[in-house]
Design a protein that fits this description.
It is built from 15 helices and 15 strands. The chain is an alpha/beta fold. The longest helix is centred in the C-terminal third of the chain and has 20 residues.
Length: about 400
């Protein structure tokens, strides 16, 4: 089989007979040292083969899959050249059986790319969030889409809490004062507040959103959430959280809003100018979900006008963001590259989960429901719970501008 994996380091190609796989392309060619141990919750049990500390989620790390895939006679193509019609990924895609992509620097699987991939049977997200894949095209073509659910939920939740504190306490501007050799206490403190007593709301209270709520509860904040699936009453009582029917209903009550929902047609552009106008003036918005959930220009305008006091997160659209993306230079932001879910700890988990998905695929065993997004021509498993049919990859061709610049 042939497969591909897309990472972030210089290209390290491999060719072999048999099926082929790659880091933005995968069919049946993968690598690792020993069989993946079976465990009920791969998110919190460390693999004895993939200890945290190894940079696995890159071209050089190859998700630790090369030996495993080569031993099975599969071709494994690993590349970071993924954008544009002349990219390595585009050339390899035509005969790939499996594509593996990471959400941090994704290979966008558009309908046009699905049409070119005549042998494609499965698309795997080495991480969480499969919105860079046109789910509607996968449904119509009967191609399986899977991701490593749970692998980095806590990693992202920790990042959310860090971003909230850094915004509210005015950490980044104060750090810049020190770097510049200054000691202006008034300048640093003028935009700094305590989070205690503030109202914070999460858009979605699934694996990440609920973990954020649990981590904020000890700060004595007032907790709010909205979700298409309401939490059980005992969980609401335990957290002391208030439920709202919609984001529009929730945001007027909140000093801080954190977005923890998957991107699909129902959430795309959810935080547009109208939604941001419903927020308290001077509120903070944190987005570690997907960049396309928040309107790029509306966020920048709200920061300039003071409607938002700060915006932080690590997700952009497209990724990588072009160098002239307005979020790079807008005021009062705390943006980073897409790193919240790819700590070294998380990399060990999503590498192990990716291998488990491949083992199931090669051996004809069922992929666990927690990992399934699309199967058999419809949303399946966690995908049926969290996503809606349709496509959210429109405009992803702009990612090629980062390479060009």
């Amino acid at each position: 089989m042939k497969g591909a994996f897309h990472g972030e380091d210089p290209l390290r190609p491999l060719r072999r007979s048999g099926r082929r796989l790659s880091d933005q392309l995968s069919t049946r060619r993968f690598t690792q040292d020993r069989a993946l141990p079976r465990r009920p919750d791969p998110a919190h049990a460390e693999s004895d083969r993939l200890p945290p500390g190894e940079l696995l989620g890159s071209v050089s790390g190859e998700l630790g899959l090369r030996k495993f895939l080569e031993a099975g006679g599969h071709d494994y193509v690993v590349t970071s050249d993924k954008d544009g019609p002349d990219s390595k990924f585009e050339r390899e895609l035509v005969d790939a059986d499996v594509v593996i992509s990471q959400p941090f620097w994704p290979a966008y699987m558009t309908a046009e790319r699905f049409a070119k991939a005549k042998n494609l049977k499965m698309v795997v997200t080495a991480g969480i969030g499969s919105d860079h894949t046109d789910l509607q095209a996968a449904i119509e073509r009967g191609i399986t889409v899977a991701e490593v659910t749970y692998c980095n939920s806590i990693s992202v939740a920790e990042h959310v809490v860090m971003m909230i504190l850094s915004l509210v306490r005015n950490y980044l501007p104060s750090w810049e004062v020190v770097k510049a050799g200054g000691w202006d206490i008034a300048e640093c403190a003028a935009r700094s507040y305590d989070v205690e007593g503030m109202h914070v709301g999460t858009v979605a209270a699934g694996r990440i959103g609920s973990a954020v709520l649990r981590r904020l509860k000890p700060f004595d904040m007032h907790l709010h959430y909205t979700d298409r699936h309401r939490l059980p009453p005992e969980v609401e009582r335990e957290l002391g959280v208030t439920f709202h029917e919609s984001a529009a209903d929730m945001v007027p009550h909140c000093d801080v809003v954190t977005i923890n929902a998957p991107l699909h047609p129902e959430t795309e552009n959810l935080f547009d100018a109208a939604m941001i106008a419903r927020m308290k003036r001077g509120a903070y918005l944190v987005n570690t979900a997907r960049g396309k959930i928040a309107n790029r220009d509306a966020v920048a305008a709200a920061l300039r006008s003071g409607q938002l006091a700060g915006y932080a997160g690590d997700v952009w659209f497209p990724q990588p963001a072009p160098r002239d993306h307005p979020w790079r230079t807008m005021p009062h932001h705390g943006m980073t590259p897409h790193i919240s879910g790819t700590s070294l700890s998380a990399q060990a988990r999503y590498a192990a989960g990716t291998r488990e998905i491949l083992e199931c695929f090669f051996e004809g065993r069922p992929i666990r429901d927690e990992y399934l997004i699309v199967q058999g021509g419809h949303l399946a498993g966690v995908g049926a719970h969290s996503y809606s049919e349709g496509d959210a990859t429109g405009g992803s061709e702009e990612a090629a501008r980062y390479k060009a610049s």
